[in-house]
Amino acid sequence: MKYDFHITELDKITAIDFVQERHYSKVMPRLTKHYLGVYNDTELAGVLTLGWGTRPKDTIRQVHPDLDSPDYWEIGKMCMDESYPTNSETQMLSAVVRWMKQHCPEKKFLYTWADGIVGKAGYVYQAFNFWYGGFIWTDIYIGADGEKIHPRTSKSLCQENAKMLGKEMVFWLTPEFMKLKGIQRIKGKQFRYVMPLSKVYRKLLKDSTVNWTRNYPKEKDLQWKQQLGRGKWEILPSMPEMNLAVVNINKKNVDSHITTL
Fold first, then answer.
1. Which residues pair with residue 49 across a beta bridge?
2. Least confident range of 19-23, 35-39, 215-219, 252-256
């Protein structure tokens, strides 16, 4: 079905509430600059956030060494109400690209990652003809309760681990501590995608440090490893179990928009 979506910037609270009610991950990116509401007439159909990830300069320089963080936005969260059919997400992306060209004409690229660690190969970006730039391995912890914990939000666990060792701080949980707490450390793939916002910027991909293609990853390309000990990893036969509804370690991030009211 064809929709005539239009974009309106939302207040932070409305946008985050919408996302956290519908998205598989309630954890919000920190460097968000725009909360975009995707409307079907007067109904809020979806939300997409724009900003940067944790290393804005390093990210865009993988696209081209002469680019910098002002040259792009990265999709932080994207979700649509489940009442809309799957192909509506590509229409949402089309509306967002039009909005960027009008309101952020200085931006050269729209960048995003597909979260392969939770089984996402990026099919919506493939359907929209994003360019694919390979993958990186990334780490998460899975708590004994099934919570997916990013290393950036594991500070309290690291402090507890350090205290057990008699150290001031550790930056990665030790295998002994994880065994004691029932925590798993998992590596999975993150798939890199970019959309040039004009034919001129498309040409920059030819001089990229990354090989950009439309040879897209599929479900068979998803892969996971589990840490067994120091320097020891095991390939897993399938995606590890996690409960994305559990929020304990991540509660401060998830509730930050409420506590700042």
1. 35
2. 252-256
CA dist., res. 51 & res. 36, Å (int): 11
* Amino acid present at 31: L
Query: Coil, helix or strand for 157?
Result: helix
**Arithmetic mean of pLDDT, 44-70:** 94
Place of tokens 């960048």: 111
Cα–Cα distance for residue pair 200/43, rounded to 1 Å: 36
Q: How does DSSP assign the chain, residue by residue?
A: -----EEEEPPHHHHHHHHHHHSS--PPPSEEEEEEEEEETTEEEEEEEEEE-S-HHHHHHTT-TT--GGGEEEEEEEEE-TTS-TTHHHHHHHHHHHHHHHH-TT--EEEEEE-GGGT---HHHHHTTPEEEEEEEEEEEE-TT--EE-GGG-HHHHHHHHHHHT-S--SS--HHHHHHHT-EEEEEEEEEEEEESSHHHHGGGGG-SS--BS----GGG--EEEEEETTEEEE-SSPPP--TT--STTHHHHTHHHHT-
Q: Which residues contact 216 (CB under 8 A, 6 or more apart)?
A: 121, 122, 126, 132
- Give which of 21, 25, 43, 36 is closest to 73, Cα–Cα: 36
> In the 8-state DSSP scheme, what is residue 84?
S
Mean pLDDT of 183-202: 96
The answer, yes or no, to whether residue 68 has pLDDT greater than 90, is: yes
Contacts of 259 (CB under 8 A, 6+ apart): none
Q: Please give the single-letter amino acid code of residue 13.
A: I
CB 93 within 8 A of CB 178: no
Domains with residue ranges and CATH for the chain: 6-259 (3.40.630.30)
Q: Output the pTM of the full model.
A: 0.91
